Amino acid sequence: EVYFKNLSKQKQKEVMEKNGNNHKLRVCVATCNRADYSKLAPIMFGIKAEPQFFELDVVVLGSHLIDDYGNTYRMIEQDDFDIHTRLHTIVRGEDEAAMVESVGLALVKLPDVLNRLKPDIMIVHGDRFDALALATSAALMNIRILHIEGGEVSGTIDDSIRHAITKLAHYHVCCTRSAEQHLIAMCEDHDRILLAGCPSYDKLLSAKNKDYMSIIHMWLGEDVKTRDYIVALQHPVTTDIKHSIKMFELTLDALISFNKRTLVLFPNVDAGHKEMVRVMRKKGIEHHPNFRAVKHVPFDQFIQLVAHAGCMIGNSSCGVREVGAFGTPVINLGTRQTGRETGENVLHVRDADTQDKILHALQLQFGKQYPCSKIYGDGNAVPRILKFLKSIDLKEPLQKKFCFPPVKDNISQDIDHILETQSALAVDLGGTNLRVAIVSMKGEIVKKYTQLNPKTYEDRLELILKMCVEAASEAVNVNCRILGVGISTGGRVNPREGIVLHSTKLIQEWSSVDLRTPISDALPLPVWVDNDGNCAALAERKFGHGKGIENFVTLITGTGIGGGIIHQHELIHGSSFCAAELGHIVVSLDGPECLCGSQGCIEAYASGIALQREAKKLHDEDLLLVEGMAVKKEEVVGAAHLIQAAKLGNTKADNILRTAGTALGLGVVNILHTMNPSLVILSGVLASHYVNAVKEVINRQALSSARAVDVVVSNLADPALLGAASLVLDYTTRRIY
């Protein structure tokens, strides 16, 4: 992380030099309605606060300029932003054709504005038809586009518009990891995707402690208390207008019956909005004593209203996104937000024929308080976005590149690919051997070197450097370009600093050792270091059974027992870098002594050392050998002899292996009940001997909800080296912020 922070600073410096030290990035922010301004305003404030880097031009269009929607451009002026251009682009109408005509009108008017402004980059938000006109105009006029909130999934035509803007945009700022994965699946360049979180959360997460009672009284009346009112915001669904209007009627009927003070906001400008307004007036909502109908509420005040409401109801994205930050109950109606990620505060009513279903949902949700959700942000989106903007090199080619998956194996005609293959130097520090390998991006071990691991620190470090230098020189001869060095070692490792904190007893003189500095100085290449169990998990994630799996656990069954945990596609290190010490899960309070000093650990039962100990006991008592077996005088009795004896019918040897398999299985059950992975991968020389025993214990001991887990044996020939290589390959081929 330290390495990449320094690299990022250097990159920004280089970009400033390339763009010209005196050149400020000219950013055009175009806002179409009250909803997108709430997301864009925090970015605009951030840009305005750094005039040494940016010039800001604000273009206002769409429903901002319509009186029926509160002339919301005034709140932009109140925020002290200079509006460069106002474009009246909304064609009045009640059907889908009006939206198409509005897009056409925007396309006619925008070229003149963009020709005058000549921005370096245009920031476009979301999935509205106005935003599609903006993105289309900018793309055709060779203006770079930064799209906010791409990759998300919802219902209606918004999905299609959002993804269309994604294909036009050059850079992407997304709010959730799922959205990021969707963008990658849509063949967008990972280097141009920033997972920042939602900009509105920067304001949301600092807003709740402000004075709110005066705001509640202003909009709902002096007699209203917190958690005793409802906020309703429902929009037409353009792909099924009639049904959405019917749903709105049922919603109003249910709210009237529920008899709580309710703030109703007018719908947006989509086709069908006028019919929804007519429904409100037909039911007398604007004059009903329990209702307050408004065209617009300033975002700062709206935050306070939903934060302290007893419930929010409707189909606005605000309900499933922003409101979760406060734990306010939400009732999401219809299909408009189908596919959105939501917190547990959201109750979905997909369809309703009568008001009863909606009324029942109100009775279930009203007045509850849920845990606050941060699915869409942590309050630090704007600093990340500004940093991302500063990193944009205007001298890079404007033409987008799409990262299509390979359809078939082609022979590349690019000279760089012909001449060299991107690779990593992988180092595996085992208890016996020290191995260095050149590993390609596809996981092929191009060349491997093996030496006995020296006993002293000085000799070991000298040998590592010698082998790495030799391998790096050989890489040139085999047409490999080394991107970095990855080191897999036993013990507790601080991967941020590249330091071995504490070693296992198998590797002597190997505590408080800085591996990164001497190796990166000698080569020079970036160096990553991690625990061998974590490396095995990374190898499975990149090359093995764990590829594409969100949550899985790898268990190494070898001389010792180790492992690694992948949770939400990321490796878990823990607060003091000792997560996934799976070999030291205690499965018996009075079991055999473990090398760690405790008793009853999995490693004390199921490791190679433990099986060797039991094999020696049987051999010393002449109870190991059976017909068909022989042990030479100089031969050391080990786990392999125990396994052979069990296969040949030695019941005592078989019982020892069964006990070891049961201990390992109980450890896996504990992992299932703690992490709930969908996959457990057994790796190492003993894995195939334990897999059936582990499955039996899971079926016997695990909770029924956890038994569906897959337990498989790794198919990787060398997970330690492949994991060390993946440390390099995973991080040198993507941008980190």
UniProtKB/TrEMBL annotation:
GO terms for cellular component: cytosol. Zn(2+) binds at residues 584, 594, 596, 601. PANTHER family: BIFUNCTIONAL UDP-N-ACETYLGLUCOSAMINE 2-EPIMERASE_N-ACETYLMANNOSAMINE KINASE, ROK (REPRESSOR, ORF, KINASE) FAMILY. Homodimer. Homotetramer. Homohexamer. The hexameric form exhibits both enzyme activities, whereas the dimeric form only catalyzes the phosphorylation of N-acyl-D-mannosamine. It comes from the Eukaryota. Keywords: Allosteric enzyme, ATP-binding, Cytoplasm, Hydrolase, Kinase, Metal-binding, Multifunctional enzyme, Nucleotide-binding, Phosphoprotein, Transferase, Zinc. Pathway: Amino-sugar metabolism; N-acetylneuraminate biosynthesis. In the C-terminal section; belongs to the ROK (NagC/XylR) family. An N-acyl-D-mannosamine binds at residues 492, 504, 532, 581, 584, 603. It is found in: Cytoplasm, Cytosol. This is Bifunctional UDP-N-acetylglucosamine 2-epimerase/N-acetylmannosamine kinase. It catalyses: UDP-N-acetyl-alpha-D-glucosamine + H2O = aldehydo-N-acetyl-D-mannosamine + UDP + H(+); an N-acyl-D-mannosamine + ATP = an N-acyl-D-mannosamine 6-phosphate + ADP + H(+). The keyword Protein transport does not apply. Residues 53-390 form the UDP-N-acetylglucosamine 2-epimerase domain. GO terms for molecular function: ATP binding; hydrolase activity, hydrolyzing O-glycosyl compounds; metal ion binding; N-acylmannosamine kinase activity; UDP-N-acetylglucosamine 2-epimerase activity. InterPro entries: ATPase_NBD (IPR043129), ROK (IPR000600), UDP-GlcNAc_Epase (IPR020004), UDP_GlcNAc_Epimerase_2_dom (IPR003331). It comes from Psilopogon haemacephalus (coppersmith barbet). Its EC number is 2.7.1.60, 3.2.1.183. GO terms for biological process: UDP-N-acetylglucosamine metabolic process. The active site is at 532.
